[in-house]
Specification:
3 helices; mainly alpha; elongated
């Protein structure tokens, strides 16, 4: 029902207003996704940088081949540990996004 207030039926469509609404909604969506995924991104960057450093220290050992299952296992444990906070943050962000607060 509020969409008719933003874009009235009887008036011509103003592309400037539409582009402004599109960019605002895309920026809010991007920030929401970044907030939700930031712990997982931080985990992935930290683990991969540490294994890259380990691979540089031991050049004859295939570290990335050996560390693959360990990274998957640590990722599952990490996600299990943060999932209640992640779900709560997602619900709060979606509630704020929907209500506009």
């Amino acid at each position: 029902a509020n969409s008719y207030e933003l874009i009235p039926i009887q008036q011509d469509i103003n592309p400037v207003i539409l582009i402004k609404l599109l960019t605002e909604s895309l920026s809010q969506s991007f920030l929401l996704v970044l907030r939700v995924c930031s712990p997982l991104l931080l985990f992935a960057v930290t683990i991969n940088l540490s294994f890259a450093l380990l691979a540089r220290l031991t050049p004859n050992t295939p570290i990335f081949f050996i560390s693959g299952p360990g990274v998957i296992f640590l990722g599952i444990i990490f996600f299990y540990d943060i999932s209640p906070d992640l779900i709560a943050g997602l619900v709060l962000s979606l509630r704020a996004f929907i209500t506009g607060h």
